[in-house]
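lol ok so funny story. i was supposed to be doing the assay writeup but got distracted and ended up predicting the structure for this chain instead. priorities right. anyway since i did it might as well share w the group, maybe its usefull for someone
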Amino acid sequence: MPRSSAVIPLEPAGRSVATRRRILAAAAAALVEGQGMFEIGDVAKRAGVSVGLSYHHFGSKAGLIATVVEDYYDRFEAAVMDVNPKPGADWGERERLRTERMVAFHYGETLAPVILTRLSREPEVAAVEAARIDRHIALAARNIRLAQERGEIPAELDAPLLGAMILGGLRQAIGQALAAPKRPAQARLVDQLWAFIAGTARFRDARRSKAGKKG
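and the output, tada:
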């Protein structure tokens, strides 16, 4: 559908923000219901706004989809990537908890199967994801370097490469779990993912090593 050329009256700032959020929520619901597909007219109807107002806020259907994905990753980063699950803990304990948070987030997000398995090849989504993945790898690399400084991960491992390997593996595995006819139990999935992370990083659990020496 071409962008509307009608003049859209400006809304007060507070109402404009509320309208934008309502359209985003409607688009997310439509994407889930349509398994990654929707029409702007349906979104506008769900949000209780005109089609023209939807275009006014997001510019195009592609712009609306990209914003839904941006919003999804904002929430993912706030819940998983940008928090320290247990300050003061060693790398293994902390990252095990982060893995639990990651699985819980994806299992609780109705958009997760759509974004990870159906929308990821769409150009507007791929551009958003490329920027977010770069940021996530940088965060993971910084995290890994700190663990290397403490002797928890071998210093010879390339931190950005290791971060990319782990994050890529997690994404694929979680995508498979979400797409399965019967999802594995969260606890079981966390166990399997953590075994992969610890093995790939060659994590050295200092507490177990000390306990072994005492025995």
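The two ends are 71 Å apart (CA to CA). DSSP finds ten helices and no strands in the chain.
back to the writeup now i swear
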